[in-house]
Specification:
The protein is built from five helices and five strands. It is globular, with a radius of gyration of 14 Å.
């Protein structure tokens, strides 16, 4: 879905993986943009750095989130993002696009906000 900003991940993931060798990505969900992500992983030889989880049942969301350190939300439009609230509740620092109601969901010490573009999101991930 376009509004989820998955296209941004195609630029973010290789940049972060090449500059931060200790960072890996877990990607939950499936959909029409999955192929673009899989092609990026293959093109950039990131098979050992990116894991596709597929659709994650709601009962398993916490178990997936606690495996991480940072939660990345690339939404291009969002009124209230329950996913970033769930991530923060499991102790993850959130890096998110500064769109819609997102800046009102979490206090500044739990979230790093970025403009919805690859360079700004990468910059926030590098400081997270």
């Amino acid at each position: 879905v376009y509004r989820k900003g998955v296209d941004l991940l195609v630029g973010i993931i290789p940049t972060i993986c090449h500059s931060m060798p200790h960072v890996d990505f877990l990607i939950g969900g499936d959909g029409s943009k999955l192929l673009a992500l899989q092609e990026m992983v293959e093109r950039d030889r990131l098979e050992d750095r990116v894991e596709f989880m597929g659709a994650v049942p709601h009962a398993q969301v916490r178990n997936v989130l606690v495996q991480g350190h940072v939660f990345l939300n690339c939404s291009l439009t969002e009124s209230f993002c329950i996913a970033i609230l769930e991530a923060a509740c499991t102790g993850l620092l959130v890096v998110s696009t500064n769109v819609g109601g997102v800046p009102e969901v979490l206090p500044p010490d739990l979230i790093c906000l970025a403009n919805p573009n690859v360079p700004d999101l990468v910059e926030q991930l590098l400081v997270a």
